[in-house]
Amino acid sequence: MIQIYHNARCGKSRNCVALIEESNKQYEIVNYLATPPSFETLTEIIKKLNFKPLQLVRQKEKIWVENFKDKVMNDDEIIQAMIDNPILIERPIVLYNDKAIIGRDLEILSAFIS
User: Fold this and answer.
1) Per-residue model confidence as pLDDT tens for the chain (114 residues)
2) pTM for this one?
3) What percentage of the chain's residues is helix, strand, coil (to nearest 5)?
4) Most CB contacts within 10 A, which of 14, 90, 91, 110?
5) How far lies 87's CA from each of 4, 34, 59, 101, in Å?
6) Catalytic choice (10, 65, 108, 111)
7) What phi and psi, each to the nearest 5 degrees, are found at residue 4?
8) Separation between Cα atoms, residue 114 and residue 109, nearest integer Å
9) 16 is catalytic
């Protein structure tokens, strides 16, 4: 089953959900702003994305700029910052067949879920 870490206020995230709906594949939406992932879950997602934690951070978000931008942080601290402030997590994240991508580019997303 496809899992989508989704923010309904984000147009790219809504487009991602619409494309997956059109695919007629089973999917589950995770409202990560209401229920942030655990430290372990977010760590696993980052591994599946093949990212460093900082690559998943929305670094232009006000919370990041004001509280974290100039701090020296290790990976665990960055992950914890995203859990404590889930708005910092890049979206949408799509998990499928033990892999993950950021589903902003619909062409890449379409190939990923096919």
Assistant:
1) 999 999 999 999 999 999 999 999 999 999 999 999 999 999 999 999 999 999 999 999 999 999 999 999 999 999 999 999 999 999 999 999 999 999 999 999 999 998
2) 0.93
3) 45, 15, 35
4) 91
5) 15, 10, 10, 18
6) 10
7) -125, 120
8) 9
9) no
